[in-house]
Every structure is written in structure tokens, then in C-alpha cells.
Amino acid sequence: MAEHDSQQGHRLIRFAEQGDQQQVEALLRSRVDAAYQDPSDGRSALIAAASEGHAAVVKTLLAAGAPWNAFDRQANCAGDYALAGQHEDCVEVLLNAGVQAELILGAIERKARSAQPSNSSYLEQRVQYLKEGAQLVDEESQGVMMAWEGPLMQAHAKAICSGGGDVLNVGFGLGLVDMAIQSKNPRSHTIIEAHPDVLRKMREDGWEDKPNVHVVHGRWQDVISQLGQYDGIFFDTFGEDYEDLREFQHQMIHLLRPGGLYSYFNGLSADNAFFHMVSCEVVKCELAAKGLSTSFIPLPINVADPAIWQDILNKYWQLDTYLLPIVQWTSIDSGVTDCKDPSS
Q: Which of 73, 105, 149, 233 is 20 to 30 Å from 165 by CA-CA measure?
């Protein structure tokens, strides 16, 4: 029985690679597993079809239950192969499948979410500024923020300060984005920071003495009710997950003035290019439902040098392009994804 299933699974992979829609459908009707993967290399019918650009077969396999995010033994998924082959139709089909799956999964996970703050462990640890302030690490040598992010923070600051006025930053870290914001001479500059060691460093460096700076001590969840409205908002916390970002964005709509601009550190799924695209589209989709338009500016970045990550436990960025988010009020959604509320 197992040998028969293996033979049928290999047939499905072969026909998918050839783009033979009729044979693929026939095998699926005979209950061949759409998710079958070759034990030797992890290749699946979905990966085979995406690699060759057969979008119709990709749709059929997804509808039959093939997982969009399954990896082969080279740690690549179908979307990675579609991207590499520049098969745009396949990329779009897989991207939409990934977004819809993540929206549904997110809705399920929120129902089971613990009330315990996701960054409570980080806030209880000591953090250190190393290499003359070029690194901020926690007790486990995880990188909280590093100097290579400097050009990205400059770009974020340029975006959120483009209209002048009042600016909010959530999460100080090394202060890279805050130094860049200060160079733009905003009318006011509010900084929320929760970690006591970081707050101590801010005091030592004179941030609380700057005339247009207001430092708010505490987790953003606990102090957000104290805030006003802003022309530019940036979000970059450590030890929190996508659900925290999502909750902030739910609150952020009450803080962002008409004509204002919001951005965040886009470190979602930063170890896989296709998963990163899916994460970006999920954010774009959920913000569109709130009347916000999101675009992404690609910025080249090279952090491949092992010396950058020496003594750092978590290599938290592994891609060669950073997609800088620009979010603003609009009634127009130009995205490719059909955003449906999974809870409806």
C-alpha cells in the first residue's frame, strides 16, 4: 500500500511538472495525496508546478489541499521557486493562498492568545549596549537592535517626518530612528520606551532634556491612552510578535492625523523572501480594511558578512531587500489580494 501511494505520488509530481492538468485532476480524483512529497528531496507536485510556471495546476493542487508553505529539503517552498523562475501568475496564486491561510490562522490564534504580555521576558532581562553603542543585546545575546539598521532608520524617519509636525516613535533601542527624526526638526517628538535599562541610557544621553522631546515610560499598551494625535508614527519594539503589531495598528488609527503617515520596522518573516511577501500582504490587507493604503519601498541591504553577526544569537535579517512600509489614509486599495475577514 505504501509503495503504491509512493508511485502515485511520484506520478502526480511528474504530471504537475509537465503541466498536465487532466492527469493531475484524474490522480486527485483517485485520492492521491495532493500534499505528497518525495522523501529523497522533499519535492511536491505544487513545487514542481510552480517551478515550471503552471498556474492552473498550482490552483488545482491548492484547492485539493496542497499546503502553500511546505518546504523541500533545500528549505524552499513553491513560492520561492515561482519567484526564482519569474512566474508571476504562479506567484500571485500562491501569494493569495498564503494570505488567506494566514488571515484565518491569525483569527484562530487570537482566540487562544494568552493574556501574558509577549515581551514580559525581555523586559525582565538586563540589556547591554556593546561595541561603543553599535549593538543592543539581551542576556541571551539576542540582537535587539544593531548599527546596520542605520540607513533603514534614516529612510523611515524621512518618510514619517515628510509632513513635519508631531512625530511618535514606539521603541527607542539604539536611538537610530530618533536621531534621524531629530535631524528633521519636528514640532514635537514623543518616544515610548518600556525597558528600564534603555530608559537609563536615554537619561544618560540627555534625551529627556531635549526641548521638543517627550519620553513616555512604559509599554505602549499601558500608556497609549495618554497620547494625542500625530503627523508621523513609527513602531519598532522587541520581544513582541505580529499580533502585538496588529493590535498597535488597531489603536494607531486613532493616533494618526488626516494626511499623516505611519511606518514600522518590517522584520516579519525576514528569513524567507516569499514568506516575507505574504506577511507584507497580510499587513496591507488588514490595514486596507481600516481605510489605510500601504505601499512598500524596496531598499537594497547586505548583511551577509558573518562579522556583522559575530556573537549574536539571532540572525534576525537574512534577505537582500528591505520593504519599507508607507501607510496613509485613503479609500483606495490597490493590492492584488482579495482581503476577506476570516471571522465573518
A: 149
